[in-house]
Amino acid sequence: MAYSEAYFTARESWRDWRIEAEYLMNLARVTRGARVLEMGCGGGGVLRMLRARNALPFGVDTLDVALELARSRNDLPGHLDVTQIGDDGVLPFRDHVFDALIGQHVVEHIDDLAAALREWSRVLKPGGRVALATPNARYPDPAHFADADHAHVYALAELRDAFTRAGWRVETGITIFPYFSRVRALRALGVIVHRVFIRAPYFATRGRTILLAATFP
Question: Global pTM?
Answer without folding.
Answer: 0.93
